[in-house]
Amino acid sequence: MLKTRHFYDGKSRGDNLSTDEILILFSFLLFMGIFAGVGIASMWVKQDTTDDYLVAGRGMHPALAALSAVSTWNSGYMFIGFIGFIFIQGYSAIWIALVSTIGQLVAWIWLYKYIQKEGSERNLRSLSSLVSSKTGAQEAKIAAILSVFFLAIYAAAQLTAGGVALNSMLEWPVTAGILIGFVLVVAYCYAGGIRASIWTDAAQSSVMIVGSTILCIVALGQVGGLSGLHNELVSIDSSMVNIYPSGLKFGAALWIAAFFLGGLGVAGQPQVVSRVMTLKDDADRKQAMVWFFVWQTPFIALMFLIGLACRAIFDGTLSVDEAEAGLPMLAQSLNPILGGVILASIFAATMSTADSQVLACTAAITDDIKPEWKQNHGRTKQVTLVVAALATAISLVGQQFPGFGDSVFALVVFAVYGLGGIFVPLILIRMAGYEPDSQHTISMMIAALLGVLIWTVLGFGEYVFPSVPGMGAAFAVHFTLCWFRDDSNPNPLGRYNLPTKQFAAIGAVAMVALVGGVEYSYYAIAPDASDTSDKIGAYSVTGDYSFYEIAQGSEFIEDGGSVAINASSDDAMSSLNGMNIVGVIVNINHEDDETVTGLGCVFADPPQDDIVDATISHAELNAADSNSDSFEFQLDWHDSTIVNTNVTNMTKSDIEAMLEGGNLGFGAHELVIGVTVQNGGGAGCTSNDDGQDVSYTIQLVTLDYTITPS
After folding, report:
1. Which of 47, 239, 295, 541 has its CA 20 to 30 A from that of 633?
2. Are 677 and 702 in a shared domain?
3. Which of 92-96, 185-189, 512-516, 520-524 bottoms out in mean pLDDT, i.e. has the lowest?
4. What is the Cα–Cα distance from 347 to 163, expressed in whole angstroms?
């Protein structure tokens, strides 16, 4: 097996920090201190009550609540996971940005109006309390348990995102970042509860949008503007500039619909809903809605451009597995101070979001699972600590499951669509005036949970995000129970009448036309599904190496001297045109011929083996080795570790980039051999050694490989 020269994955760091690293660390610590100070400042206005701890006394300013909602809804997903998704998908990622935003708008206009009204009138502090009209009802307890399950995973994703950011820019271990995050989350919670989280969110969100704007402008300048960015993506992979991805097994309509339902699912996220519950009345909700979209819309556009720029700048440097490190790496490469600011913003956002999710879990436990703790402020904080520890444990264990447990995007998608599937259908039917009983409610929640879990386990999330099976299963159970269960209201629409046959027919025709139009455009425009170069999956890589001699000979080299041997790929016995040259091997053979004479040789040092050193150079690459015995060494420009193995969570093009030599190997090669004589002998014993005969062989290595889906 050949030794491997892996792709560059970040500059090497020695024991001493470079100037850039010091600037990054200084900037990071400075802004983290500012953000932490903002959160700690909330201690001066907080009240030691559970209402203030969990919903800030329902007196939060709409602008602060909105900016915090933007940060909490996006946070680690936007900075880490979304960037990685764009890095892989290219232009087709625009669908999740646009369609999800439409879903969020619908949620803010209608669903949040209902949530804010119910929360204020019934003094609710948790989303799980909304699924029942009675405090402590069985369905509310189950909803709370499911909330804790998904929110703990969601919080773990935020801790992982913080660890990834620190690892990418400072090379701190991901586990260290996760543990630091745990400490900060507990500190935020204990300092001021949700108020500390909201204040910190607003501060870092303001800094982040300024930093992201600067970063986007600088990155676009580096790739030649929008046109240069487009051209660079085309040169990498033409499918990157297609608005559709290839190989959607269930078509484009469901793929797009999943994004809308995912956006609508913002109303099923307890950590975001808690921001709405901090508002005083409906007028504040409307004002917060305007702030939310005015702030989030340009932010999404900036992240989209930055994600594309990361692909253009780091193609060949970052693999698919490392795509989520794109944003912090980009910031670090362009300006160290800006890198520190971005890193601090990312880390603060992920931590305050994790804090919000931990608090949402706390509210679900104290208000629904153990309502007797509802007004016990001390016990509430103890619950917070336990939940934070649970999220940290999930994040740490997740590092042992590459591709899912350590993926911010995968964890967020699973948690967001799981929560959306559980809560949004119930909120919608209750808004319509339908009052399901406990069995009806629990059946819908379990159906949504199973829909998301089964869809994810089957691996179908690659083609359609699990919001569709999650919400679809919940509504399917709702309609089935309405029509076939005696104890359920037969009208599934509550106070609204079922549509007439004529209206239903018109709606069906409109839906068929819309779906048909989308599918036609997909099959007309989308890349050929047979081309899997941009498709993430599992692949089997098989390969065979061949060796072609381009030089061999022998030279006598004097002590301290060196000889340069020039060779070329044209010197091979057969043509190498069209072959994939991936390395060059050098064989060095020598045997010491030192002799010693004199009466003292009986007691003196015996002959010593001379040291031969050799360096092979090609293009701007080189490799060297030395030894007193014969030896072999090689210069490689491919990754031999994946040959004749199975790889996962990668694209075909990524694998090809790791195995293709390109134009390397063709042309001139230079081998420089030197000798350092090692004399034996001593008093009364003369050594006779003025050099060494060295023979050499230079061989080019070619690789013929096959990549097949496994």
Report:
1. 541
2. yes
3. 185-189
4. 8
